């Protein structure tokens, strides 16, 4: 094993010196540095690498107003973009890494509920009445009879 390290040290130092200029007094320091680095990598670490711990518990990571990133602990309303730009993970990779269920939310519940189309009156949003659930439309007809003519809801203008 020591012979292998010496042979690798010789090859590395020779390759370095062939393309770089170095004073003769600095060559022994270079050899010692390369040899010690190779010797350190030859010995495996005594303890295996431990699994990364989440920044917060999975149970506490979902709140009504935000989702906490298990990687770094940041609070986000929408976690997917943060995972991609900040950690280089897709949603599936994130769920697999932390053993999260498939239905684990990546958007804060309040934020998601706020943007649902049936939370708006058709005249107040760009969502057409045809896109709304019939049950919601029936409720809107009762709440806003001015928009109803002959049992149908007028399209917003």
Describe the protein:
GO terms for molecular function: DNA binding; zinc ion binding. Pfam families: ROS_MUCR (PF05443). Belongs to the ros/MucR family. This is Transcriptional regulator. It comes from Paramagnetospirillum caucaseum. This protein is mainly α and 157 residues long. The protein folds into three domains: 2-42; 59-111, Orthogonal Bundle (Arc Repressor Mutant, subunit A), CATH 1.10.10.1550; 121-153, no CATH class. It has six helices and four strands, in the order H-H-E-E-H-H-H-H-E-E. The strands form two sheets. The protein has a two-stranded antiparallel ribbon. A two-stranded antiparallel sheet has the order 3-4. Helix 1 packs across helix 2. Residues 146-151 have low confidence and may be disordered.
What string gives the helices and strands in order?
HHEEHHHHEE
The residue-averaged pLDDT reads 77
> What is the CATH fold-level name of the largest domain?
Arc Repressor Mutant, subunit A
Q: Give the termini separation.
A: 81 Å
Main sheet, how many strands, which sense, barrel?
2 strands, antiparallel
Could you give the count of β-strands?
4
């Amino acid at each position: 094993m020591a012979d292998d390290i010496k042979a690798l040290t010789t090859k590395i130092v020779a390759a370095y010196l062939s393309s770089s200029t170095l004073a003769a007094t600095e060559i022994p320091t270079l050899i010692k540095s390369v040899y010690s680095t190779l010797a350190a990598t030859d010995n495996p670490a005594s303890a295996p690498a431990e699994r990364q711990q989440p920044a917060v518990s999975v149970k506490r990571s979902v709140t009504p107003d935000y989702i906490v990133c298990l990687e770094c602990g940041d609070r986000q309303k929408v976690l997917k973009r943060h995972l991609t730009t900040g950690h280089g993970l897709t949603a599936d990779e994130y769920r697999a890494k932390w053993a999260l269920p498939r239905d684990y939310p990546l958007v804060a519940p309040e934020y998601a509920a706020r943007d649902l189309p049936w939370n708006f009156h058709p005249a107040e949003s760009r969502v057409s009445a045809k896109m709304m659930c019939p049950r919601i439309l029936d409720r809107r007809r009762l709440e806003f009879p001015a928009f109803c003519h002959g049992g149908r809801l007028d399209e917003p203008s």
